[in-house]
């Protein structure tokens, strides 16, 4: 995937841009300099369809929108070639930063159903304001290893936000999500099984069946007994993660899936390491507070502050607590 190709997907991206419905906001938006000679959208679509679609033999049951097609096929093609997936069945959800698709896996190699999280082009163009999470966090390369501080060329590129630097930042963002899934899954956390990673896509275990994907907890009301048990399970996971020096960083009922009585934690790109990030306590406290908010609504008695303090005193290693009022 060529990371300089984003302009090709401008129209696709527009669909997810709330400003497009707001003419005034749109007018106020600063025009962006155009770096490439513009191709018409039809030219682009034809080009992409030729190289990755029909000619490549990758036909999908799911019929992507006209602007979605190029990005989707280009993102998933490598997994198709590797015989990891054989079809795309449906769009599960367009989230904040990524679209998640239900794919037919190759049962000889992987699972029958697979979730493909395909980050959208915009995600790479302006990485969201993730400074808080990145504090102290090294940049990861596509092999999952950290870039050395002595790699001056890359360090300079990152500082200058050159295309090499921007690309390295994208790879890092994706690799944090992937390597965290690996680490947590290995340790027995309730997370999807990571299966493969590409330039802007993660393949992982799918929660749901052929007809329906798992709901996120915020969409669901639980029975009191179940609520209590699932709350304990979320807390077990938060503590297990802390033991592994991982804080989710965006945990809430929106990033916990529910399927047939079981929960699965998802969406890990902004994970933070409590041993290096000076804001770790604040981030953990927020995760716990948000989880408790949901479970309190479901009738569970829980005191987010007390839980946070207890966990932090046990696992918060070398970082000072935020001052108490
Ligand atoms: N492994 C999975 N199985 C089934 N559905 C999933 C899976 N992962 C994500 N989803 C669905 O896709 C949505 C977006 O995924 P998420 O990782 O939260 O990305 P975003 O950063 O866009 O919020 C989720 O809210 C959930 O509905
Ligand atoms: Mg999410």
Overview of the structural elements:
- The protein has 325 residues and is α+β, with helices and mostly antiparallel strands.
- The chain folds into two domains: 3-205, Phosphorylase Kinase, domain 1 (2-Layer Sandwich); 215-315, Transferase(Phosphotransferase), domain 1, CATH 1.10.510.10.
- 40% of the residues lie in helices and 14% in strands.
- The protein contains eleven helices and eight strands.
- Helix 7 crosses helix 8 (163-186) and helix 10 (280-297) runs antiparallel to helix 11.
- The model is unreliable at 18-30 (pLDDT under 50).
Which SSEs are present, and which pair or pack?
Elements: H1 10-14, H2 23-28, H3 41-54, H4 68-81, E1 85-94, E2 98-105, E3 113-119, H5 121-125, H6 131-134, H7 152-160, H8 163-186, E4 194-197, E5 201-205, E6 215-216, H9 224-243, E7 256-259, E8 262-265, H10 280-297, H11 304-315
Antiparallel strand pairs: 1-2, 2-3, 3-5, 4-5, 6-7, 7-8
Bound molecules: adenosine-5'-diphosphate and magnesium ion.
Summarize this structure as a short list of keywords or feature phrases.
325 residues; alpha+beta; Phosphorylase Kinase, domain 1; Transferase(Phosphotransferase), domain 1; 5-stranded antiparallel β-sheet; 3-stranded antiparallel β-sheet; 14% strand; binds adenosine-5'-diphosphate; binds magnesium ion
